[in-house]
Amino acid sequence: MNDDVNDAAQSMGAMPSSSWARGAEVSVRRRKLNPSPRPHAHAARAHGTHRFFLSLLVLLLPACQGFQNADREQPSESLPSYRELVERYNANLDRLTKVWASAAMRAEGYEEGGKGFAQGEGELIVVLPDKLALRIGKLGATTLWAGSDGERYWLFELQDEKLARVGRHDGPAAREGLGELPARPNDLLRLWGVQRIDPDRAPPAPAVERVEGLWVIEPPGTQLRIAIDPATGLAQRIDLLDASGKSVVMSRLARHRPVELEGVPPGGWPRVAMVIEVRSPDHPGKITLSLSDPHEQEIKPAVFDFESLVRALKVPPQHVVDLDQMQTMGLGR
What we know:
By secondary structure, this protein is of the alpha+beta class. The chain is 16% helix and 34% strand. 38% of the residues are buried.
């Protein structure tokens, strides 16, 4: 079964044929620290290591307080204007249109029975502004495939019985949350800090604040709070906000490295974070995505086409779940 999945991934350019030789594998272990579950064990609602890994993969994290309760600092130096800061932030992304990177993921959290973790390797493939594919492997076999395009998001489970779930960004499931999918795979694009900000849409004053030594902005219409390093102009932390402005999940970004662009001098290469740690500060669970070898290359459109993926990954039609239809029918909770 997974030979078919790997063949499909390779044919679409989402998995290099040499990935097994490079050690694209998953090791899964579970440790019981206490005989009874931790108070937050309900947050990893899924059963079994694979289900636990899946729940963390789709950012199944409770609300966090984030920067909104942090003390605002009186800056010792003048702050940049909102436009100045955004234009500096965007300048790093000017030439960034697509990224292909090797990815190693580690998920940690608490289930019933104690602490568990899972780790795997694969690829993260992005075409800006809104296309993403994240393939995770286990012992050389593709087990999870998360992705999105400009209209929809999806998640394939390819271990045991194959299952595909899909929903629209503007659909009822995305607005209300659905079971194990309260956040969407395309949120990783927002948490990675690779999307440009509109400098012409400034928030009300104070548009730029200094918090914990970082410049913090909340670009209108994005539901994001972005903390930027004054020295580099690069994002160090990004919070996703709910409708009330409360942080619901956050990422810490580290080890920014250049993305190699063909025909562009190294000094003009954009820099992106190689470590993306996604978590809730008041919850023990977290996901760490470690990237390597980021570069630009041609990517086949089928990598971001849900119907093509269903056919290539050989998911039976009866195992394709429309999340919005389930939500409308009242089956989403």
